[in-house]
Amino acid sequence: MDTRHYSPFDRLVVALDQSLKTLAGPVQTSERSYPAAQVADTTLSDEQHRTIAGLMRVNHSGEICAQALYQGQALTAKLPNVKEKMERAAIEENDHLDWCAKRLNELQSRPSLLNPLWYAGSFAIGAAAGFAGDKWSLGFVAETEKQVVRHLETHLTQLPADDLRDRAILEQMKQDEGQHATQAIEAGGATLPAPVQKLMSLTSKIMTKIAFHI
After folding, report:
1. Counted domains in the chain
2. Which of 6, 79, 91, 187 has the fewest CB atoms within 10 Å, measured from its CB?
3. 54-92 pLDDT, tens digit each
4. Residue 147: φ, ψ to 5°
């Protein structure tokens, strides 16, 4: 176990290093298999190709935001066990980030050009949630993951019926996000006030619409 004491400056340096890896790679993953590795690709029309690339770009940006949220929360979490949960969840979310990046590359498309902006804003929100207290930080994680699950369910309905490759990726991501929400609640996460939930949903919708194209 690492028993070294890190000063606030040390933690900031670590956070900066993590941000650079998140945005430019390589990221630390749990080394799980790529869900689409054994799934045959299908022929896509130009319109389907554009739609799927846009969806994967949105999901990739969402994982950038998730990394920033978890890393910001880990920086300001007060209880060691909560900090550990945030860091573990961030590694699992890196799997999703890696999978989305691979799929974008397969589609010969690119991530959102605004990922640094999404990261900075989400990191600030995560750090603020951590300062508010661990129960609110965990509650924020739970609500974030619930909203991500709903987004993924919507994306799954937009895939062509025979597109099993993208479906395999999104289904695994949906399962993981649901587990993260449950774990955050079981760890003591508080239910966020309705206005906060609505604001989070509105912010997510704005990011989704922009990232789909840019």
Report:
1. 1
2. 6
3. 999 999 998 888 888 877 877 776 666 666 666 676 777
4. -70, -35
Helices (H), the chain: 8-24, 46-76, 80-106, 115-132, 134-158, 164-186, 194-213
Assigned domain for 83 exists: yes
In a domain, 204, yes or no: yes
What's the pLDDT tens digit per position in 129-180? 777 777 887 888 888 888 889 989 999 999 988 899 999 999 999 998 888 8
What CATH number does the domain containing 172 carry?
1.20.1260.10
Q: Which is nearest to 118 in space by CA: 196, 193, 194, 214? A: 214
Structure tokens at 208: 């989704």
Sign of CA dihedral 149, 190, 202, 125: negative
pTM: 0.82
Where is pLDDT greater, at 56 or 6? 56
In a domain, 29, yes or no: no
Q: Is 10 within a domain? A: no
CA angle 201, 203, 209 (to 5 degrees): 100
Instruction: Give ∠ CA 96-116-207 in degrees, rounded to 5.
Output: 70
Containing structural domain, residue 184? 43-213
Contacts (Cβ under 8 Å, ≥6 apart) of 126: 68, 69, 70, 71, 72, 73, 75, 76, 137, 140
